[in-house]
Description:
The complex is a heterodimer. Chain A is mainly α.
Amino acid sequence: MLLLAPALALLVALFAFPISVSLLSAFSDGGAYSLGNFARSFELYGGDILYSGAVCVGAVVVTDLLAIAIAGYLTLGENPRIVAILRWLYRWPLFIPFIVAGQMMRSFLAKNGLLNNAIVATGAVDPINTFGLLDWRGVIITFIWKQLPFVTLILAGAMASLDRSMIESARNLGAGRLRALIEIVVPQVTGPLIVASVLTFVTLLSVLSVPVMINAGNPTMITVDMAYRITSLGDYGTANALGVISYLMTAAVAWLYLRQGIRSEPKL
Amino acid sequence: MSTFAPAKWLAYGIVIGLLAFAIFGPILNLALWAVAERWYWPNTLPSQYGFEFWGRVFSERGRAWESLGLSIFIAILTVGVSLLISCPAGYALARLSVPFRGLFMLAFLLPQAFPNLPVYINIAQIFYRTGLNGTVMGVVLVHSLHGLVLSVWIAAAAFAAVDRSLAEAARNLGASQARTFFTVDLPLALPGIMAAAVFVFLDSLDEFTGTYFVGVPDVITLPLLMFNASMGGNYQIAAITALILLIPSVGFMLVIERFLKADVIAKIGG
C-alpha cells in the first residue's frame, strides 16, 4: 500500500479534489445550494451544448465507419501492395497534437487553402465559387483526421488477433469481402470499438484549441464557452455547470455504448 | 482471380490518392506556410518563398528557443515525476497482493474517462490560491496527472510481463526485496517503462489545454506560443512553430512499432 500512496495522493489532489470543487461550485450560488448555474448554462449555451454533442457524435460515427473500412481492408485485403501502402499511410496523424492539427486545417480548409486550390486546379470549380469549410464541418473534419489513426490502430489490432478460420469458411461459402467484414469481423470487435469510441468522444468533448481556431463564432463548442466564462468573466459557477454537463454527456455516451455492447456480446 | 483489370487498378489508385491527399494535404499546406513570404488570395501557391520568418521566430524577440527549451524542461520533469510515482505503483499492482486491485486500476484510468478541461480549470483555481499558478512546477503537476494514467498502466503491464520465478530465485538466494526489485524486476521491465517515458514525454510536449489554464501568464510552452501566433493571424510563425512540434510526433509514430506492437496497444484498451 505504501508503494501506491504517492500515486493515489496525486490522483486525489489533482483529480478527485478538483472534481469535488467543480461539483460544489456548479451546484451553489453565493454559498447556498442552487441550480441557478445550470439555468444560466442552458439559457445562454443550450444551443452550444446540443452543438457540442452533435459535433462529437458525428465525428465519432464517421471516424468509426472509416476506421472499420480501413482496418477491414488491412485484415481482409487480397492485394498485399495496397495493404502495405494503406498500413503505411493511415497512421501519420496518430501523435500529431490537436493544436497542430487545428493550425493545419485552418489553412488547408480555408477559402484560399490547398483543398480549394486543388479543386480549382481540376477545373471543377471557379476560383470565385470556392467555399471555406471553417465552421462545424471544419471541426468535424479535423477531429476525424486526428482520431482516425487511433481507432483504426485499435480495430486493426483486434481484427488481426481474430480466429481466421471463421472468416475463411464464410469466404469459401461465397460471402463477399464486404459481407464477411460486416457479418463476421465487426461483431467480434465491438468491445475494442466501444472503448475506442468512448475514449474518442471524451477526448473530443474537451478539446479547446480546435474549436477556437476553426470555429469560434456562434454556435461553438462548450469548451470555448467554459474558457470564456473563466478568462473573461471569472465566472466559475457557470463554467463548472457546463463542466458537469459535459461529464453527464460522457456518462450518457458511455452508458449507451456499453448497453449496445452487452447486447452484442462484447469481448471487453 | 488474377486477371489484369485496369478499371480496378484505377479505382484503387483514386481511393489511395484521395486518402493520401486527405492525410498529407494539411501537412503540406502547413509546410508551404512555413516557407511562404507572400501568399495572397487568389494565388494557388505562395508568390514568394523564403526563410525570413524562420529568422524572426528564432530571434531574441521571437521567443521560440526559450519556449522550446521550457517545453523540453517541463517534459523531462514530468517524465521524472510520473515515473517516480508510477513505477512503485505499477510494481505493487502487478506483483503484490493489493486489496481491491481492480478498483485501483480503474481509479488510475478515470482521469482518461473524464472530460479534462473542467478538471483543469478547477486545478487552476486551486493552484491560484496556493501560488502554483503560472509556475513551472504547477504545469509539471498538471502534465503528471495525465502522464500518471499512461505510465501506471504501462508500468503495471511491464512488471506483470517479467517472469516471476526470476525474482523468487533472487529472494531464495538471500536478496532483499528492495535489492530484487532494483537488480531483477526493474532492469527486466525497463523496455516497457522506457515506452511509458516516451509516451509521457511526448504528451507533455504537446499538451495545450492544461498549460493554457495553469501556466498563464508566465509559462509559455511551444504549443502556447503557436496558439498565440495563430490567434494573432500570423500564419507563417504559427506554421513554423507547428512544424517544430510535428517533428517529435511524426518521429515517434514512425518508430513506435519497434517497441509497441498494435495488438499490445489493443490489449491496453481491452
